[in-house]
Structure formats: structure tokens, C-alpha cells
């Protein structure tokens, strides 16, 4: 895909216009178990669009939330997330069965997400089912344990419970390259925030919200402030050279800290993703429809919220001035981010293609050995 094929939208970049994407998926939602989509925006006072897609027969989450600058973008975001989850609930191709030492000696099992630390020599002898993957730099075929994607409830009784399957790196896109790029951004975001958490939050540069120079970012901040939200935003330093942002919301009417994170080659998009994700998290709790949300409000993260001083915050242009603009289309950008990840982890990122050839959108799971993500839902300040 050439750079001219990139469709630049408020808060995101895609390969099709929103109307074109909706036209492609709208008539096929039942194939993915989606029975309806709903607009949640009016349940909160903020006004940033949030939608949900509902799959009653889901084997994971029966509701998937989505956010965006417009109602259509939020609706598509929810539908795409539901389609992603549908794909990981389907049986994966099993190409081999046996221990890594025999079946896939080059697979860095010790660098995959583990439920508990385990010695490398023991992991090499562990018997798993294996599924085909593709290296995102070399293009070479490889094998990954199925359980790095397959959820625990779907595993055979004999399967060892050592690999932690998460949604990190799971993405849908209008094209495969679009999906790969957004999956890689998610992996980078969560690894950077994990590293920051391990460092006690010392990698953050607190930013003055009033200094944002992106129209959509300013609009999102304006809506949040007008709704009475206490707001804190920060740029988080990481080893990948990509903008990663985090945002926190708190209000007296619902005294819970809600957080959002975002990564993108464009700092403004990274920030608006963080802002809208925080607003989405709040609305999801207000709606109360997500399967894994606790029913007791006291289960949420409710520490006293003392926003950072409004003085001494870094202006947005100063905090982001060192980032360079991405070059090329989705394929070139995905290759660049994959190379950045390999430079840090020393392992090549790999992708599992989950979609059928005739699917209206492309679903992938990107696996980056050596990266980490938090286990708890909350994003500590």
C-alpha cells in the first residue's frame, strides 16, 4: 500500500473511509456472532463517542467497547474489537505436537508471556501444540505454541498452564498491514507502560493539556474539562523511540480513577487514544455490561486523586518535538516498528493470521517475545 492510500481521520489513520469499512462489515456481523451494536455515549456527561458490540454466544467477552472521534468511528472500533475476539475463539491450525526442543528449537519460549517463571531447559521439554506464524522482518515461516493465543478455557485437559494468552497484539484492520501496524503499536504501548510501572512511574513527562496543538486532542480535552473531569496526561519514555501516552480521569460524581493508554507514530494520535480510552473505561463501568467488571463499586481503583500541579508542566510541542514523522504506508511502517522491537528485545516479532481469505477485514495476533504487559486491569499512577 502506498502512502497515498492512507486515509487520515480525526484521531486515527486507516486504509478505508469509515463508511467504506462499515459497508464491508455491516452485512456480515452475524458471521462473527454480533447480534447488535449500541451507542453508550449518552449514558455519561462527557460526550466523547463510545459504542458497544454484543455477542451473546461469546466464549470470552460478550460485549466489546469502542471509541472514536465520531459515532461511526466508535461503532467501527467496537465492531472490530468484537471481531478480533471472535477470531481467537475459533480453533487454530495445529501444525505440530511435541516439545520445543524437537518441534521448534528456534522458538524463544522462555521469552513468551509466562504465568510463572520457568527454567529454559524445562520449557524446551514441555509438550505443546504448535501453530504456524510468520516473521515480520524476515518473512520466514515459524511455529508458536497455540496456547500463546488460545484461552485457558479452550485448552485440552493435558495442556500445561504456563503460557499466558492475552489480547495484547490482537488487532483487526481493513488490510493485513493496517492490522499488523496497530497490533505492533499496542505491543509497544503495553511494554513501555509495564517498564514505566516497574520504574515507579519515573519515565513520565507530565504535559500541560492546554498546550495541545492537535484539533481533535483539544476537542477531547475540552469535553473532559467541560464535564468537570480532573485530568492528568503524560508522555511515557520507552526504548522504542515511539510516542506512548497515558491519561487519567477523575470526577466527584464518580470518584474512580479511569486510565487510558495509546501509542502511535503520530504523538497527537497516541494522546487522543489515551484520552478516549480513559473516557471509554469510565463509560464501560457506568454501563456495567462488560462480563469481567466487578459488580461492587468498591472493587475499582479509588485512591484520592490529586492532579499534578498546573504549574511546571511541560508544553506539548516541547515534549513531542523530538519525534519524527513516519514514512511510507502501512507495510513500511509496520516493518519499521517490527525492527524497532527486535532491536530492543533481540527477538523477531511474529504474526498469526487469523482471518479467512474472504473475510471483510483482516485479524492478526502479533507476538513479540521479550515484551511484557501488566496483568492487572488498572494502570497505576
Largest sheet: 6 strands, antiparallel
Could you tell me the number of beta strands?
15
Gap from first CA to last CA: 39 Å
Average pLDDT reading? 91
Low-confidence stretches: none
Helix content: 25-40%
What would you call the shape? globular
Which structural class do you get from the secondary structure elements?
A: alpha+beta
Estimated share of beta-strand residues? 15-25%
Order of helices and strands: EEHEEEHEHHEEEHEHEEEHHHEE
Number of H- or I-type helical stretches: 9
Give me the Rg, rounded.
Answer: 20 Å
Task: Name some characteristics of this structure.
alpha+beta, 15 strands, 381 residues, 9 helices, four-stranded antiparallel β-sheet
Walk me through what this model shows.
The mean pLDDT is 91. Helices cover 30% and strands 21% of the residues. The radius of gyration is 20 Å and the shape is globular. The strands form 4 sheets. Strands 6, 7, 8, 9, 14 and 15 form a 6-stranded antiparallel β-sheet that branches. The protein has a 4-stranded antiparallel β-sheet with strand order 10-11-12-13. Strands 3-4-5 form a 3-stranded antiparallel β-sheet. A hairpin with a 2-residue loop joins strand 1 (7-9) and strand 2 (12-14). The two termini are 39 Å apart. The chain is α+β, with helices and mostly antiparallel strands and 381 residues long.
Amino acid at each position: 500500500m502506498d502512502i497515498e492510500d492512507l486515509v487520515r481521520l480525526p484521531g486515527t489513520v486507516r486504509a478505508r473511509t469509515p463508511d467504506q469499512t462499515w459497508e464491508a462489515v455491516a452485512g456480515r456481523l452475524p458471521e462473527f456472532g454480533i447480534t447488535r451494536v449500541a451507542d453508550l455515549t449518552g449514558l455519561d456527561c462527557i460526550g466523547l463517542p463510545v459504542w458497544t458490540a454484543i455477542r451473546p454466544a461469546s466464549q470470552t467477552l460478550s460485549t466489546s467497547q469502542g471509541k472514536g472521534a465520531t459515532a461511526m468511528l466508535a461503532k467501527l472500533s467496537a465492531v472490530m474489537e468484537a471481531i478480533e475476539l471472535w477470531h481467537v475463539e475459533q480453533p487454530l491450525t495445529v501444525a505440530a505436537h511435541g516439545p520445543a526442543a524437537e518441534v521448534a528449537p528456534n522458538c524463544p519460549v522462555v521469552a513468551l508471556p509466562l504465568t510463572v517463571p520457568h527454567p529454559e531447559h524445562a520449557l524446551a521439554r514441555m509438550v505443546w501444540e504448535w501453530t504456524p506464524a510468520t516473521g515480520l522482518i524476515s518473512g520466514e515461516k515459524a511455529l508458536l505454541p497455540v496456547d500463546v493465543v488460545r484461552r485457558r478455557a479452550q485448552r485440552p485437559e493435558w495442556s500445561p498452564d504456563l503460557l499466558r494468552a492475552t489480547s495484547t497484539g490482537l488487532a483487526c484492520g481493513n488490510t493485513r498491514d493496517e492490522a499488523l501496524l496497530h497490533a505492533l503499536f499496542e505491543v509497544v504501548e503495553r511494554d513501555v507502560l509495564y517498564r514505566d510501572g516497574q520504574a515507579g512511574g519515573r519515565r513520565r513527562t507530565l504535559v500541560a493539556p492546554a498546550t495541545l496543538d492537535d484539533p481533535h486532542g483539544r476537542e477531547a480535552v475540552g469535553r473532559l474539562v467541560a464535564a468537570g473531569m480532573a485530568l492528568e496526561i503524560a508522555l511515557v519514555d520507552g526504548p522504542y523511540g515511539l510516542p506512548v501516552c497515558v491519561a487519567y480521569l477523575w470526577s466527584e460524581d464518580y470518584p474512580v480513577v479511569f486510565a487510558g493508554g495509546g501509542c502511535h507514530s503520530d504523538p497527537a494520535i497516541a494522546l487522543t487514544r489515551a484520552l478516549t480510552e480513559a473516557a471509554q473505561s469510565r463509560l464501560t463501568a457506568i454501563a456495567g455490561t462488560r462480563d469481567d467488571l466487578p459488580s461492587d463499586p468498591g472493587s475499582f481503583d479509588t485512591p484520592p486523586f490529586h492532579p499534578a500541579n498546573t504549574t511546571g508542566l511541560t508544553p506539548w510541542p516541547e515534549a513531542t518535538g523530538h519525534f519524527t514523522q513516519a514514512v511510507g504506508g502501512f507495510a513500511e511502517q509496520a516493518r519499521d516498528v517490527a525492527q524497532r522491537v527486535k532491536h530492543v528485545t533481540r527477538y523477531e516479532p511474529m504474526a498469526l493470521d487469523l482471518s479467512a481469505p474472504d473475510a471483510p477485514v483482516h485479524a492478526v495476533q502479533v507476538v513479540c517475545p521479550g515484551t511484557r504487559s501488566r496483568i492487572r486491569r488498572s494502570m497505576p499512577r
